[in-house]
Amino acid sequence: MTATPAWPPQSTPRLYVATGLAPGPVTVDGPQAHYLAQVMRMKPGDPLKLFDDLTGEWLAVATEVGKRSVTLDVTTLLGAREPVPDLWLCAAPLKKGRIDWLVEKACELGVDRLKPVLTRRTVVDRLNLDRLRAHAIEAAEQCARTALPTIEEPVKLAALLRDWPGDRALFFADETGGDPALDAMRARPGPAAILIGPEGGFDEDERSAIRALPQAVGIGLGPRILRADTAAAAAVSLWMAAAGDWR
Predict the structure, then answer these.
(1) Which domain holds residue 219?
(2) CATH number of the domain to which 55 belongs
(3) pTM value?
(4) Strand duo 87-91 + 192-196: pairing
(5) So what's the pLDDT on residue 171?
(6) Is-contact 179 133, C-beta < 8 A?
């Protein structure tokens, strides 16, 4: 017997839509319509996976494909919105390119919230949050996430520490030395955050202020000096393995 092809096919493209989904018609326009019509060459009857960061992932079928808009018929809920590990990434802003990469990897790795933190040695103090959100959406579309990380406005380190919630561990990458990251994270399950400083690191006063926070735990990330974006990805990966959803 000939095997029945999987439906929808594994190669079915995915698209984020900024509206709650339900069975019925939905229209996409602008760059998304251009992508479907001109890049993907979508035709009526072709399938598409949609997710909305609210309800989950849905199967839709193209019914009308034009140059400026594409109409889809949403038919089947393929899966509910994924549960997201309760991890924040608090990182000093980096230059364009590196911060884009960091946001993409944070989304792929499953971070729930990104909180840019301004420190004394931070070089970049302004961020284009719309551009960063676009990078997060693209990453989610590619890696099959059905939930998007929240990206917040930058906050000064002093304000971050002042308002820190009492039930959330704060693992900060301390270039002067700290507990082995994996051991520290395994010993403190539950809500957590990772704090990564700028390329120049925290100054002594900042490090003292962080260590004064009862929830703060200094961690080491191995014997090599890591760039800030690499350190963030490494620390998030370790937390996912120790206390997140990689276990």
Answers:
(1) 87-242
(2) 2.40.240.20
(3) 0.92
(4) parallel
(5) 98
(6) no
Per-residue pLDDT of 178-234, as tens digits, reads: 999 999 999 999 999 999 999 889 999 999 999 999 999 999 999 998 999 999 999
From the list 161, 152, 93, the residue with the least C-alpha distance to 121 is 93
Pairing of strands 69-80, 24-29: antiparallel
Calculate mean pLDDT across residues 16-32: 94
* Mean pLDDT value across the chain: 93
Q: Are 59 and 75 in contact (CB under 8 A)?
A: yes
Same domain assignment for residues 100 and 221: yes
Q: State both tokens at 233.
A: 């990805």
Kindly state whether residue 53 falls inside one of the protein's structural domains.
yes
* 185, 225: one domain: yes
pLDDT grade, residue 137 (50/70/90)?
very high
How many structural domains are present in the chain?
2
Nearest-angstrom CA–CA distance, 81 and 136:
16
66 with 92, same domain? no
C-alpha distances (whole Å) from 126 to each of 95, 101, 117, 151 are 10, 17, 11, 13
Same domain assignment for residues 62 and 178: no
